[in-house]
Design brief:
Blueprint: H1 20-28, E1 31-35, E2 41-45, H2 48-56, H3 83-87, H4 92-103, H5 108-113, H6 115-132, E3 136-137, H7 138-143, H8 145-155, H9 162-172, H10 180-203, H11 209-219, H12 226-257, H13 259-267, H14 272-282, E4 290-293, E5 298-300, E6 303-305, E7 310-313, H15 315-318, H16 353-370, E8 375-376, E9 398-400
Parallel strand pairs: 2-7
Antiparallel strand pairs: 1-2, 3-9, 4-7, 5-6, 8-9
Helix pairs in contact: 6-8, 6-16, 8-12, 9-10, 10-12, 12-13, 12-16, 14-16
Keywords: Heme, Iron, Metal-binding, Monooxygenase, Oxidoreductase
GO molecular function, one term: heme binding
Family: Belongs to the cytochrome P450 family.
């Protein structure tokens, strides 16, 4: 192991500022060798064209349990990039079949139909936060409860179990925060819970995604196995609430950190859609990125990558690439088009992005309408990051109104 390799992920100056290494590598070393939390080396991509190429090329796969693949976390196994989760994740043709089945549910039209219910829940959560008085933590009062309620409603699981989901998710997303035995225990508890939930929905179907997938799978001659159904439910519970919940907090913080941004939206609420897209692009605290593995030699950015290489795509660094976005270092709430890579690209792009957009736009619209005087209760430099996890976010976002 080369001990002189830079350690990845890179530290940030503050929770809302990007690591300086992103710009340095884009200009000088776009295919850079880095050392992961495990101690294993991997190649980091930071340019827009390179990241998009890798995410769109099916030869870069998710076989992160291969013998010569780099270990992503500080632990030997477990979590979202571990061997057990890989066994539940379909690949190749099976993945495309999975996307066709699950994609029937996550259409933009269907997600838009959920918007009134999402808005009603957002307003209820803000009522409770305001009743508790200022200052308040927007993350725990609003950012996390809203997406948890949405994904629980979609999957037909009780919202009252949200504390369990947060506990299990944090362990599954651990980079350095938890020990291997803690991750294993949480993973087993989570697996037993979801397995029992799938069995219960098979016996007594409801109006939810899991019941629908079971019905479709049974009608189409077992198109999804029990293991794939469990993996789907686990993946959606983690991705469906963690990413959006963290983004609600970060998006609000970005807009309030520069008061003119928030005031622009209060004056022009029609900009909410483009403002959400720009917040997704501008996010300097997204977490790890997406790892990929190759089994054949492939050229990226003028560099030939040998078989067995693990590649880390930094979508956030790519989203700041001046060759792809004019004034990429500025947050432009009117930016359009905005082909950011925050939801990935190609065959593994985020299947729930229509739902995420609906939630983020609704959460921001309700905040602007109900609390136009919202302000940070601390300086932007004091905002605490969530540490030791694969996904980036804020531990707290103290606000007043």
């Amino acid at each position: 192991m080369d001990i002189d390799l830079p350690e990845y992920p890179f530290p940030q100056p503050t929770a809302l500022e990007p690591p300086p290494e992103w710009a340095e590598l884009r200009s000088g070393c776009p295919v850079a060798e880095v050392r992961l939390a495990s101690g294993d080396p991997a190649l980091l991509l930071t340019r827009y064209s390179d990241v998009r190429q890798v995410l769109s090329d099916p030869r870069f796969n998710r076989l992160l349990n291969a013998e010569d693949a780099a270990r992503i976390t500080a632990n030997e196994s477990g979590g979202v990039f571990g061997a057990e989760q890989a066994e539940k994740t379909p690949t190749g043709e099976a993945h495309q079949r999975w996307r066709r089945l699950v994609g029937r549910y996550f259409t933009a039209k269907r997600m838009a139909a959920m918007q009134p219910r999402i808005q009603a829940m957002a307003e209820r959560l803000l009522d409770e936060m305001v009743a508790g008085g200022a200052p308040a933590d927007l993350v725990s009062s609003y950012g996390f409860p809203l997406p948890v309620w949405v994904i629980c409603d979609l999957l037909g699981v009780p919202d009252s179990d949200r504390a369990k989901f947060a506990y299990w998710s944090d362990h599954m997303l651990s980079l350095t925060r938890y020990q291997q035995d803690e991750i294993n225990a949480a993973e087993q508890e989570f697996g037993r819970y979801i397995w029992a939930h799938v069995d219960a929905k098979r016996a007594d179907p409801g109006d939810d995604l899991i019941s629908e997938l079971i019905a479709v799978a049974d009608a189409e001659d077992g198109q999804l196995s029990q293991m794939e159904l469990v993996g789907t439910a686990q993946g959606l519970l983690i991705a469906g609430h963690e990413t959006t919940a963290n983004m609600i907090g970060k998006m609000t913080a970005m807009l309030l950190a520069d008061r003119s941004r928030w005031e622009q939206l209060v004056a022009e609420p029609a900009l909410v859609r483009t403002a959400v897209e720009e917040a997704l692009r501008f996010d300097a605290n997204p977490g790890f990125g997406l790892p990929r593995y190759i089994t054949e030699e492939i050229e990226v950015g003028g560099t030939k990558l040998p078989p067995g290489t693990t590649v880390i795509t930094s979508m956030a660094a790519a989203n700041r690439d001046e060759t792809a976005f004019e004034s990429a270092g500025d947050m432009d709430l009117r930016r359009a088009p905005n082909p950011h890579l925050s939801f990935g690209a190609g065959p593994h792009s985020c299947i729930g992005q229509a739902l995420a957009r609906t939630e983020l736009q609704t959460a921001l619209t309700v905040l602007l309408d109900r609390l136009p005087g919202l302000a940070l209760d601390v300086s932007p430099e004091e905002l605490p990051r969530r540490e030791g996890l694969i996904i980036g976010g804020l531990e707290r976002l103290m606000v007043r109104w």
